[in-house]
Amino acid sequence: MTEKIFLLSLGCAKNLVNSEQMLSILEKEGCTIVEAPEDCDIAIVNTCGFIDSAKSEAIDAILKLAHLKQEGVIRGLIVTGCLTERYKDEFLKELPEVDAALGTGSYNDIAEAVRAVSEGSGGEWYKPAASCAFDGERKLLTPNYYAYLRIAEGCDNRCSYCVIPYIRGRYRSREMNGLIEEARSLAARGVKELLVIAQDITRYGIDLYGERCLYKLLEELCRIDGIEWIRLHYMYPDEIDDRLLETIRDNDKILKYFDIPLQHINDKVLKEMNRRGNGQLIRERIDKIRAMMPDAIFRTSMIVGFPGETEEQFQELYDFLEEYRLERAGFFCYSQEEGAPSAAREDQIPEEVKEDRRNRLFVLQERIMDDFSAGLIGRELMVLCCGLDESGRQYGRSYMDSADVDGVVFFDDETIKEGEFVTVRVVDAVASELYGEVVAREE
Known about the structure:
Distance between the termini: 45 Å
Largest sheet: 6 strands, parallel
Shape: globular
Number of strands: 19
Radius of gyration: 22 Å
Strand order of the largest sheet: 2-1-3-4-5-6
Helix content: 25-40%
Structural class: alpha/beta
Number of helices: 14
């Protein structure tokens, strides 16, 4: 095939990995990957379909590309991912502008779909979600100094507000040997930071090896030359055990960055969300981590306005955040998602109440972050240089800042190259943005 392909990847980092795998498949088939839709023959949108806002973003993107197709700028339009999987029975009927649709079990069929669209046909590819191979080569869409390492696919947690298990299938761990081989390959390509991802990384290995094996995987990753930072995304409090914490504490390559989506703190709300554990367990885990690793940084997400959430239950969440002062937090209004068990409840919270609660937490978190950042002034941080921002300012990320979701550290030194580590002394702070001066660079 000689088609020029443009791919737009929406949603989470796990979706990005699927996009990278599809691009690699298409390059092997002879396709050329282009960066602008106006330059392509066939456009692909890899969608997120988790909540209403993600669905709206995906549909808007599809319609914009469909307009280019109508004008004759592009010849074909393919849509893949969570949105197509979720609405596979009616997707092409509702969006006839789309030539082909692939579900989450059919990413490996992308070359067949492109060939069909190129020949003027198209169609649908919907294998069972759990059947899709999730190994394979990738054409990285991240800068060459960091990459995601997806260690599992799917989810078995069945939170009552979530449709991901129905879209992505059951939890499936990847073979450890394959992960180590992929990580070595990434290091050989210049990757210095590995972001270990899955819907729940703390369950890694249970299905394959009969036990939690994240700590074993991390120990092996730490032995790979070239990998300097290992960042962990999506840990569940009930699955965090002493062996894992000791491994994180004792290995300098593993960043003391704990991304733990707590969602709430009230016991009744957590139970109705079908979350494992309770408020006491959450508090105990945070206390233990902070005692073992005083420099630990916490990132979390919280849902407000879950059906039946009372003002008292919300206040407990507010008080918890004020007391524990987690350094990084995002807040989301509950989204009534078709197919999720909680969507059928009659005690839905009015939108204006949800928005008010979210805003109150946002104001609180801004104050927490301001205080935390101010306390960093005078401290020296190792920073991974990310180049220039849109305004031309040089910046990087510390261990406290993950790609695309957290703050950054600004500094002025035009000799520092993207992907280089430097030591920066913080001289000023505004919210999650730090400003500093370079005092040393890696040898």
